[in-house]
Design goal:
Strand content: 5-15%
Number of strands: 8
CATH architecture: Alpha-Beta Barrel
Largest sheet: 8 strands, mixed
Radius of gyration: 19 Å
Oligomer: single chain
CATH topology: TIM Barrel
Distance between the termini: 20 Å
Helix content: 25-40%
Number of helices: 11
Number of domains: 1
Structural class: alpha/beta
Strand order of the largest sheet: 6-5-4-3-2-1-7-8
């Protein structure tokens, strides 16, 4: 089935689904003979530089947009850089908002590159056309930053419906520019794309959709990329508000819970990374950050107060939204888990 044919479920008469919170998720784990979630060793640090963005997508769990003012300041960045150096963290995942709009973004990336870390930047593509970002593609290429870019469909109508009029055209031109700088052509400069459904459905199989994306984007626009990540929309913030307006929240939550897949649990991103917000505060994942659910043993703690060597085995804060990461093939910042 082509992505264009994937229907968005509409049901204005949703029955009330059971209201499962942390207890419900932990009970589900126990029913499959699995313990409650706990941390493995930290392999990655994910940093949210703020909620300022040049777009306001209707699926955004961050509630990011052009009018948001929450932006990480340089003193906070400096303390994070020092912590990364002290703990020899080798993988840094930078997100937002549009992280590039933070005035200190490039300085921070340079610091991580200089210490030999692998840097991932989550780019919405259209930011390449913002004033002051004219050299961004070349700047990324020079530093070999791994790009993970949002493109929720290869169809103009679907992308513009989800992200705003004209976004598809700008995204395609940005991808072509990145290809010109060597991104997505081989393994030297990695260009990965992200798909998320336009409505309350689970993503289709990642491998199948990757093949469709590669064929359509190359045939239609001559675009090449490395991998496609399929990510499930979690019922948080803007997407949750959409579900509430269309009376689909209960049925979507039930869909996530009914499709719980125990084989996804081992690879959940909350087990392997630490998430830091624009103020430097600690969370188990980006989703918990947006719900203001701090790490259970580090409530109100800043990253620089954390001894990263002591985190393994600590409990992870969970809630009903966690079913979104464990439904179907699973979902993480790196796409499907199975």
């Amino acid at each position: 089935m082509l992505i264009d044919e994937i229907a968005v479920t509409e049901n204005a008469a949703d029955a009330a689904a059971p209201r499962l919170g942390a207890r419900g998720f932990n009970t589900t784990l126990l029913s499959h003979g699995m313990p409650t979630l706990s941390r493995a060793a930290i392999s990655q640090l994910q940093i949210n530089l703020g909620k300022l963005c040049n777009q306001a997508c209707n699926h955004c769990h961050v509630d990011a947009g052009p009018k948001r003012t929450e932006v990480m300041e340089w003193p906070t960045m400096r303390r994070i850089i020092d912590w990364v150096a002290a703990h020899s963290i080798k993988s840094i995942d930078i997100t937002g908002g549009a992280p590039e709009l933070n005035p200190h973004f490039r300085q921070m990336v340079n610091a991580f590159v200089d210490m030999g870390a692998d840097v991932i930047s989550r780019c919405n593509l259209t930011v390449l056309w913002e004033r002051g970002q004219e050299d961004l593609a070349a700047w990324y290429a020079q530093r070999r930053v791994h790009l993970v870019c949002s493109l929720p469909c290869y169809s103009e109508s679907n992308v513009d419906a989800q992200r705003g009029k004209g976004v598809f055209g700008k995204s395609i031109r940005a991808l072509q520019l990145l290809n010109q700088h060597g991104y997505g052509i081989g393994s030297e400069l990695t260009l990965d794309l992200v798909y998320n459904p336009g409505g309350p459905t689970l993503p289709p199989p990642q491998d199948q959709l990757t093949a469709q994306y590669k064929q359509r984007l190359f045939d239609d626009f001559g675009i090449r990329f490395n991998q496609l990540f399929t990510i499930t929309n979690l019922p948080i913030n803007r997407f949750k508000h959409y579900l509430e307006r269309t009376e689909q929240l209960a049925s979507y939550q039930q869909l996530l819970e009914e499709n719980f897949n125990p084989s996804t649990v081992e690879g959940l991103m909350c087990r392997h990374l630490v998430s830091v917000d624009w103020k430097g505060r600690l969370y188990d994942c980006d989703f918990n950050q947006m719900l203001d659910m701090p790490m259970p043993t580090s409530r109100g703690t800043f990253l620089w107060d954390l001894d990263g060597t002591q985190i393994e085995g600590q409990k992870i804060a969970v809630g009903r939204h966690c079913f979104g990461c464990t439904a179907g093939a699973g979902s993480s910042c790196g796409g499907a888990l199975t």
